[in-house]
Amino acid sequence: MKQKKLSIFTSKILYFFILTFFLVFLYFIYLDSFNKENISKAYITNQGDNTVSVINLNSLKKVKTINVGVAPLGITVLQKKQLVFIGNVGTDDISVIDAVNDKLIKTIKLHTAPLSLTSNSEETEIYITDWFKNNILTISVEDLKVSGSFKVGKTPSGVTFNEKYQYIIISNRDENTIEIYDKDHKLVKKIKAGAHPFGIYSIDDFVYVANVYDDSVSVINLVDWSKYNFLVGAHPYNVRVHNRIAYITNTVDDTLTIFDLSSKKTIKTIETGETPENLDFNFKLNLLVNTNWGGDSISIFDAQSLQLIKEIKTGAQSRSFGDFILH
Description:
By secondary structure, this protein is mainly beta. It contains 1 helix and 29 strands. The protein has one domain: YVTN repeat-like/Quinoprotein amine dehydrogenase (Methylamine Dehydrogenase, Chain H, 7 Propeller), CATH 2.130.10.10.
């Protein structure tokens, strides 16, 4: 009888340990999944060594280097679909990276050099500026194939998408214009910008474009098509806007200009690494990140205080022309 009770007791203990082990196992699986889903990453195209650096913005460390095509430059990150599209100007193709495991899953041949990339708000279509043939190419995200193209102005450089109006907006560098197309790829408006407009951004009722040769940014109102320019540092390359504050990279000055769009005054100028080109935000982590082409690095700032947190070495000639942060 005692032996039987002991056997029952032993079985219960064994059952308890098995159940505990199983629950702990499930907990760590959940924790790992939770952590993966909540990690923010910056994808940095390194044009000089044909790679993409993956930066964990939670730990502020480089965690992976991915080999892509030759001379990667442009980029766009699809937040919902967890995909990263990279434009390789040396091999005339697009590298597609699965952002869940950071692996290359597809190479899409274009037969022309891709410069800048963006997507529509539904993440169903990618738009690519075709610098040499004055086209915008489109890629179907579902099929991961080129789905069409449409003619634009001379040497299209930057491209952005305005979610409010569903506009595709392009800067044409060598004719100093901005072109605005609707979702059916029909021209809505063509407007003069400054000298050599390049990096471009649009949110709400406005378009912002960095004019490289006259050290300015053009601001275009999408409601009444009015426009004004404001001066920044030497050879601005790109611009981002948040809460009516504009952030501009100045490639010759190695600085960022911080400009208040409401008062139309410069708030601050901050130093970056060598030859800053592109920038992006993660507001959940309160971070502003810019790429340094000449410094082979990125600079990470506190988005509120604008104090430098860290400079991280990435790869040769870091660029990331487009949206490069996975939130």
